[in-house]
Amino acid sequence: xxxxxxxxxxxxxxxxxxxxxxxxxxxxxxxxxxxxxxxxxxxxxxxxxxxxxxxxxxxxxxxxxxxxxxxxxxxxxxxxxxxxxxxxxxxxxxxxxxxxxxxxxxxxxxxxxxxxxxxxxxxxxxxxxx
Length: 130
Known about the structure:
Elements: E1 8-12, E2 21-22, E3 24-29, E4 32-40, E5 47-53, E6 56-62, E7 72-73, E8 75-78, E9 89-91, E10 102-110, E11 113-120
Antiparallel strand pairs: 1-2, 1-5, 3-4, 4-10, 5-6, 5-9, 6-8, 7-11, 10-11
């Protein structure tokens, strides 16, 4: 099943793929939902991530290729064997990410269509309050 019963989570390199971060339902209009969460780039200024359905590590959502950028389609759910860590999105690589930069990740869902986007929220060292 490609739809979650409780929501989506993000898993990534910021903590060595250890802890999934829950995404919040940001908006719901008709059949379209937007789920989101914020992440902070580590010392490399680049972080990779995948999405989990209901926090289930056997139901992974991922891009088509390694190091995919924003505004890309979502594939899965796949098993860990099918969607190994190398098939992930990469924040910061193409958009000038700096260590400490905060990004807002969004998962857009409309029926079976899904896409991942993100945007930087301020710059490292700014007075951004969250």
